[in-house]
Amino acid sequence: MDSRIVERIDHVAIAVPAGQMEAQIKVYEKLGFTVIHEEKVLGTDQVHEVMLRVGESGNMIQLLAPLSEESPVAKQIERQGGRGGLAHVAFKVADAQEAFDALKAEGVNLIDAAPRKGGSGATVFFVHPKTHAEGALGVLYEFVEEGKH
Fold it and tell me: 72 phi and psi, to 5 degrees?
């Protein structure tokens, strides 16, 4: 594997309190964003996911609203006093398993036991904000391998 694990930023995810998704979408559309994908992601995520493209670029914002109280996004919103905000930053990788194995070998604090299915058919895994004994980055990071359509 190339020593460069990350290819680019894939998206920035924003936590949206339950019941506020439609209002959030309208605001982003006024800013020139376009909804390009929407789905309910079940399993451990339990979120309503909406991907928005920034203008005509390849840059994305992902809105995440919890579908249940068990959703990690619901727990984050609760910790923030009911407010939404930055959920995570996602990085695109060519091969999620190779990236996972390389980061694990480096002693990076991984949340997932292995790469898993995410939204849009992607393969994903998360790195803990307390990333490494040498330094906590303080941000939840997701690593994304695009789905095979």
Answer: -55, -30
Q: Full-prediction pTM beyond 0.85?
A: yes
Strands across the sheet with 141-145, in order? 33-41, 47-54, 60-66, 8-15, 85-92, 141-145, 123-127, 116-117
Alpha helix (H) ranges present in 31-144? 72-79, 96-105
DSSP string covering 33-61: EEEEEEEEE-TTT-EEEEEEEETTSS-EE
pLDDT given for residue 75 in this prediction: 95
| Domains delineated in the chain | 8-145 (3.10.180.10)
Can you tell me the mean pLDDT for 72-79?
95
CA distances to 42, 76, 80, 132 from 135, rounded to whole Å, are 32, 22, 23, 5
Confidence of residue 149 (pLDDT cuts 50, 70, 90): very low
Q: How far apart are the first and last CA of the chain?
A: 24
